[in-house]
Amino acid sequence: MRVDNPRTDRPRPFRFADLRRGGGDAAAELLAGLLAARAAILPKYFYDELGSRLFAAICCLPEYSLTRSEAHLFARRGGEIAEAAGRGRLLIDLGAGDCGKAAGLFPLLAPAGYAALDISADFLRAALGRLRQRFPDLPIAGAAIDFTHSLDLPEDLLAPASAPQLWFYPGSSIGNFAPEAARAFLARIARACSAAPAGGALLIGVDLVKDKAVLDAAYDDALGVTAAFNLNVLNHANRLLPADFDVADWRHVAFFDPAASRVEMHLEARREVTVKLAGQARRFAAGERIHTEDSYKWTAEGFAALLEAAGLPKQRRWLAEEGGFALFLAAPA
């Protein structure tokens, strides 16, 4: 496999499929959440093109140590992780974003193919175009998909089919699932691994419980990048519904709840405001909140038990030196 070898002739195209549900489904889901007694927007709606770029910026912030911890762990233990995971696999990247994390592992993993999944079609397509220039001979495919609903992928995206699969879910996105929902999602991955012609495994990152002040700062940084990321979901809702949210009427709220072991993010109305929502209207009182995200934090032992309950009992784990992040390699029995 030729890697990281850009060339001037036109690279072969990559396969791409838009597997998202229709815009009407997204609008209905948004509307139901915003009209609920306790208004909510699901965190997947953070990721329009601007939201994806803002999240990439969050990963560079000094308060957000998770990305650095993960990078240091791969730098220090990458060879060991690759040896355990196995080289020459089909790498399936969940929530690929700019594909940077996966691409950084290509020299270690020497994948037989790469399939990137993300909810933001335009952002992912552009990222795969850049990746194709760097890796002209690697089988590359992408799908715009809400994989929280379905992991059913066309066979032509999973090439080569003869290669064992390595599902890759880095960062801490598994924390966006409540514990039972996380178990159900991981169980779907376990079934996909078992059903793959050559078998499969999961390499997943998890943010671990740490001091409240550290987590509060990570989700409410001094530069306000996370606040912009949170507020931008209203712009996305305006386009999808349509609606007439004015982001100036709202402020970002984030805090760690130790009893629930999760960070909560909300948007709080600065004043009483009435918002038009797809032909309907909702009044928000001053101080009323829209819930936008939960990010659950785990202990390493608790997450290992979750993986086992989901049907992934064969495990290896690697802990960051500072103890705030872990990588797990897990597979069905």
Structural write-up:
This protein is of the alpha/beta class and 333 residues long. It folds into two domains: 24-59 and 223-296, no CATH class; 68-210 and 303-331, Vaccinia Virus protein VP39 (Rossmann fold), CATH 3.40.50. Helices cover 35% and strands 24% of the residues. The strands form three sheets. Strands 1-4-3-2-5-6-13-12 form an eight-stranded mixed sheet, with helices on both faces. Helix 6 (179-195) links the parallel strand 5 and strand 6. Helix 2 runs antiparallel to helix 8. The radius of gyration is 20 Å and the shape is globular. The mean pLDDT is 95.
Instruction: Tell me the CATH topology of the largest domain.
Output: Rossmann fold
Portion of residues in beta strands equals 15-25%
Q: What's the CATH class label of the largest domain?
A: Alpha Beta
Number of helices: 9
* SSE string: EHHHEHEHEEHEHHEEEEEHEE
Low-confidence stretches: none
In angstroms, what is the radius of gyration? Answer: 20 Å
What is the mean predicted local confidence, pLDDT?
Answer: 95
Name of the CATH superfamily of the largest domain: Vaccinia Virus protein VP39
What is the topology, as strand order, of the major beta sheet? 1-4-3-2-5-6-13-12
Number of domains: 2
GO molecular function, one term: methyltransferase activity
Protein name: L-histidine N(Alpha)-methyltransferase
GO biological process, one term: methylation
InterPro entries: EgtD, EgtD_Methyltrsf_superfamily, MeTrfase_dom, MeTrfase_EgtD-like, SAM-dependent_MTases_sf
